[in-house]
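Dear Dr. V.,

Thank you for agreeing to look over these. As mentioned in my earlier message, I'm a first-year student in the group and I'm still getting used to reading structure tokens, so any feedback on how I've presented them would be very welcome. I ran two proteins. I've put each sequence directly above its structure. The first is here:
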Amino acid sequence: MKNCFRIPRVLLPAQGFRKWAVIACDQFTSDRGYWERVAREVGDAPSAFHMILPEVYLGENDEERIEDIHNSMRFALEEGWMRKSPRGLVLVERTTKTGVRKGLLVCIDLEEYSYEEGSSALIRATEEVVPSRLPPRVAVRRGALVEFPHAMLFYRDKKDKLMRSLEGEDLEKLYDFDLMEHGGHITGYLIPEYLSIDVLRVLSGLASPCFAVADGNHSVAAAKAYWEEVKQKIPASEQRNHPARFTLVEMVNVFDEAIAFHPIHRLVKDVDKEAFCSFFAGKVPCARRGDTLYPKLSSAPECVSLTDEAIGAYLKHNEGSVDYVHGSDILQDPGEDCVAIAMPELDRDEIFTTLKKGKRFPRKTFSIGEAEEKRYYLEGREISYD
């Protein structure tokens, strides 16, 4: 049984958990108001917000922002903003409107990960990774002392034997608080090292046929790309245990009843609405309601693939841009000079059957939960010897 995991020592805020924890950087990319509210609530308080680059700001003084991020990480470590927990996994319970989602915080070995289609790696991407989206993420990681990951990986456990193995254990509570901006409630428990070893033995046996990066595909791919850079600069003797070889993720059972799969809708912006709708209808069978198009395709992968091809073909010769939107509100009112395209929901059983065939889903095929239910940056981990 191959082991692709490592037991971490996570960094947690020394105080002020609510202001510390903020939503994943790839959320609310069309909603500056959300991030402005977060900035106001956080202020100058210790927070992971000072150590991430929200994608809504990409392209705006990126180099300066990344330098500030690195400086904030160094300051946070030197000023004691974070404390290091004992070595062990973390049992995470996230309460949202869909229920209580249980996850296991663990390090994965990036040597066992691949996002290439047809890969037989033990850890695989569920969707296409776009290389052009990696440089800003790699730039943040390059020179960073700490990582604050938001990736979520799936394992298959229909009988839920992993989580049931932890029932009755008296675990130390690490945190227990309400997240900002309607993120629900989160509680974390430390699984001591001796017990973590047994837990990972069970988890390792659940690779069927692999573990799937369900959320944060580009984040994990960037960590892999950075590790490949580091690996070229150090001797083989140092590669086995170098901290950059690993990245922190949350492992979640794909059959967890609190997981809700949602489509990721397309929003085509700054276009001639009538011209675009006419063009799209000629490529993809669909119905139109107001400024929203509803493709008549039930298979989520097929619908996403054909939709993205049609959007790409239109934008190749016309002005406009495309955004990927979580939540159904945009379907009611896409906005001025915008057209929304509704995507169907994904059947969760398709995930591992697709990966077993060596295939991936088109990029942005599904989302786990609503935007507010995404993983928050909370736990950190040192990735540098500096």
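The second protein is here, in the same arrangement:
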Amino acid sequence: MAHHGMHHLGLATHDMEATLDFYENTLGFETKVCDLLRPDAGGVIRHAFMDVGQGEMIAFMECNDVPTIPSDFDAGINRGLGISGGVIHFAFKAVDEEDLELKRRELNGKGVEVTDVVDHGWCKSIYFRDPNQLQLEYCVLSGDLAPELVADRTTDEWTQLART
């Protein structure tokens, strides 16, 4: 099966204006499409698609008065699943390590709480949250993706790695 990248990632928001403001004015993404969906069950869904680069998009849906969707669901995903931290998160590409550091400084300058650069050995990342409390990341490769990084490991080997 051939792969051609990602078209879009669909997420939820309770506040479309705050979400658009963050992604457009803080991250600099361009909104490409805004539409309205009217489910048969009732209500209205506001739907916006933003270009995150290379034609790939992130989309947000704001559900208003849709009977099948609770109005108080956790748009940040992790808390709603009972998962701490940012186990479920989304990473955008940085061009190089200098670009990663520039993004960190720009986010800080715009009042966004962002981590220092985290060195994972094969990549480096910074982490922050959007208005929906989604954990986001900018990431850049900092080493080779060598075959030994994807070794076929048994459960015992994974357990041992987790202890080190």
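From my reading of the second output: The domain at 1-73 is CATH 3.10.180.10 (2,3-Dihydroxybiphenyl 1,2-Dioxygenase; domain 1). The helical segments are 16-26, 78-81, 97-109, 155-163. Does that match how you would interpret it?

Kind regards,
E.
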